[in-house]
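Class prep. Sample record?

___
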Amino acid sequence: MAFDPGKNVQDYLVFGEFGGVNPSITDSSTYTFMNPETMEELFNEEKEGCFLYSRHWNPTDKFLAEALARMEDSESALVTASGMAAISITLLQICESGDEIISGRTIYGGTYALLKNFLPRYGINSRFVNTLDIEAVKAAITDKTKIIFCESVSNPLLEVADIPALRKVADEYNLTLVVDNTFSPMIISPFRLGAYIVVHSMTKFINGTSDCVAGCVCASDEFIRQLTDITSGASMLLGPVLDAFRAASILKNLHTLHIRMKKHSENALYLARRLHELGITVHYPGLPHHPQHKLMASLMNPGFGFGGMLALDMEDAPTANKLMQRMQEEQVGYLAVSLGYFKTLFSSPGHSTSSEIPPEEQKEMGLSEGLVRMSIGLDNDIEETFRRIKKCLKEVGKL
């Protein structure tokens, strides 16, 4: 929902009920009605400014959802209690027993487990392909396929999806393109590039303080209405509700996302360049030798950089583990999963966030046992951070 100069500026202003610069938090699960007729109407159709029950909508969640829709330039949005909830309700709203999903093979381990292990219990099966290979995507499509699913920048190998090309395939075969944009908020705008639906784990960069779990779905008005439909909506009936206090906190953090993404990207690019110069194998789309460097440069919004995620290949697990332990001891950051925090976080995805993917499939997709995924923080002196990482690399025998 980009700014429309034809609209009244008042339509974009959000105040608290007493004029507070932050909107008021609605600490209520249910809402009163002045007459039974209005309640009956709301059970049949949504009414602007009327709320029924906070599993359906809460005013505070609505404020955050509207801000996210403006960020992603979608018509509407919905906030959820986790990123996995956002993905799950999206897939379940579209698919039913007998349907198929085509998914990128390098995706977050939790998403992989949902597609590979959980959804088949309900007759929804997935085909995992290299979505960088458009012909491979086409070859995997059957008359049962309903969705193409990918990540803008993949977890953990940082491959970059050609969203416009995937949209053409989706249109050709009447499929829905769903894109997870968790790694690259503001950097890439999948909706503008052709995605039908964009999902995020707001736990990560969007919130940025590693103090809550949350997610969102950005899509058309029609799809969000489907999700929240009282009788058939996956969000309404499965109930992944985001607490209003958390929604208010995320909304405040969202206001600094543009500044944070620039700094995350600036620091990550500096480290990627310096580490590459040392001869370390570095996965980072901002480096010219990255296979999708030119693609990402053509897709990304100017001014936000190439993202705050990079990965180092230490070749074997023992060396990766030693490096991560030494980096924590040298105060480079924390040995922890997740990403988007103000401190650098690092983990070995093959043994943590991608452990749901069987070893043989990890190997096939190019996920090394020695891969160290790093979410680069907001360090003010990134040169000092590099010196500490370099010291750790020497101590584990990589320099």
